[in-house]
Each structure stands twice: as structure tokens, then as C-alpha cells.
Amino acid sequence: MTTIIAMNAEDTVMTTIWMRMESG
User: Fold this and answer.
1) Distance from C-alpha of 21 to C-alpha of 14, rounded to nearest angstrom
2) pTM for the full model?
């Protein structure tokens, strides 16, 4: 699980920013 999160860290950040932009 930790490895997957680390590998997808960048994708998670981009997704979070995108979601915030959509809601904003």
C-alpha cells in the first residue's frame, strides 16, 4: 500500500488540485 501511494503521489496531488479547481 505504501509503495502504491508513493508511486501515485504525483497523480494524487494533481487529482486533488483538479478536484479543488472543479469545486472552486
Assistant:
1) 10
2) 0.41
